[in-house]
């Protein structure tokens, strides 16, 4: 009965067009592009451009994440092209190929906390400092992590996805090399390289490690948890309510707090770790 009640509640929060995510994703991407001429021609100081770039890149994963679940536009629906465009562009500054990451992310949902099958399991750590260290290592060249061959071994589109990812990352690396060789290495460092490093650590720790820590159990009510963020809901990207996302991925991010409040009595009955949320 609990599952039926959960679905009845969840259905009230599913649907609608998440305009905020589209504006957030596409607006952030084009604002990040605009920072380059503004900083290069001295309209804004480079340090200010670097701060703005770091904020944009730290927030740009979320719109793409919504797109990965089709929450902007379902397949064969009129808004699907907006869904895919938002997904591709919002994550480009992070050097994350959208379609490959979507395939990997759905594997995470299917096997969360499974040390052999969960592609995000390499983000696990004993504490916040270990998570930050692991996140730093995960962003360095040569680290395969979620791209290990076995993750997509059963996907018929594996070769196509890997080729597309190679093209996307090569375009990005070519752009970086061109900027550096053209005399804009400092701008490259301040507007892209350093903001990406900070943003990736923030994203991995806040969106992957914290909602799944300690990552020792699997199952519908055990593979994620509620938690109270010391920096608040907004600065933690709403991940305090990540458990709602795993239960019902079709609920948009901005609706997860309200959905959680309705679902909470049922989740408590199931013994889900809510940790004071």
What share of the residues lie within helices?
55-70%
SSE succession: HHHHHHHHHHHH
DSSP helical segment count: 12
Strand content: under 5%
Q: Ends: how far apart?
A: 24 Å
| Count of all domains | 1
Give me the count of strands: 0
Low-pLDDT windows of residues: none
The 3D shape can be described as globular
Instruction: Output the radius of gyration.
Output: 19 Å
- Mean pLDDT value: 91
Structural class by SSE content = mainly alpha
Let me know the largest β-sheet: none
Describe the overall structure.
Helices cover 60% and strands 0% of the residues. It is mainly α. The chain has one domain (17-218). Helix 1 packs antiparallel against helix 12 (256-269) and helix 4 runs antiparallel to helix 5 (80-91).
Please outline the helices and strands.
Layout: H1 2-11, H2 19-40, H3 46-59, H4 61-68, H5 80-91, H6 98-110, H7 128-138, H8 158-181, H9 185-212, H10 232-235, H11 242-247, H12 256-269
Helix pairs in contact: 1-12, 2-3, 2-4, 2-5, 3-9, 4-5, 7-9, 8-9
Short overview:
Helices cover 60% and strands 0% of the residues.
List keywords for this structure.
single chain, 277 residues, mainly alpha, globular
């Amino acid at each position: 009965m609990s599952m039926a009640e959960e679905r009845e509640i969840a259905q009230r929060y599913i649907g609608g067009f998440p305009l905020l995510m589209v504006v957030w994703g596409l607006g952030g991407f084009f604002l990040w592009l605009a920072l380059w001429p503004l900083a290069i021609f001295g309209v804004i100081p480079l340090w200010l451009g670097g701060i703005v770039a770091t904020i944009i890149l730290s927030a740009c994963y979320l719109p793409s994440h919504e797109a990965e679940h089709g929450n902007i536009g379902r397949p064969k629906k009129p808004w699907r092209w907006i869904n895919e465009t938002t997904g591709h562009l919002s994550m480009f500054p992070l050097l994350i190929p959208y379609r490959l990451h979507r395939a990997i992310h759905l594997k995470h949902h299917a096997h969360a906390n499974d040390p052999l099958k969960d592609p995000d399991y390499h983000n696990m750590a004993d504490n916040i400092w270990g998570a930050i260290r692991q996140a730093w290592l995960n962003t360095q060249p040569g680290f395969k992590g979620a791209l290990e061959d076995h993750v997509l071994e059963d996907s018929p589109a594996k070769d196509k996805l890997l080729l597309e990812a190679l093209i996307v990352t090569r375009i990005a690396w070519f752009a970086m090399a061109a900027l550096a060789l053209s005399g804009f290495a400092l701008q490259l460092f301040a507007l892209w390289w350093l903001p990406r490093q900070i943003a990736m650590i923030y994203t991995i720790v806040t969106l992957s490690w914290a909602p799944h820590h300690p990552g020792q159990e699997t199952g519908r009510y055990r593979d994620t948890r509620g938690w109270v963020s010391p920096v608040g809901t907004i600065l933690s990207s709403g991940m305090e309510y990540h458990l709602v996302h795993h239960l019902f991925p079709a609920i948009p991010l901005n609706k997860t707090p309200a959905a959680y409040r309705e679902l909470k009595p049922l989740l408590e009955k199931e013994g889900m770790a809510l940790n004071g949320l």
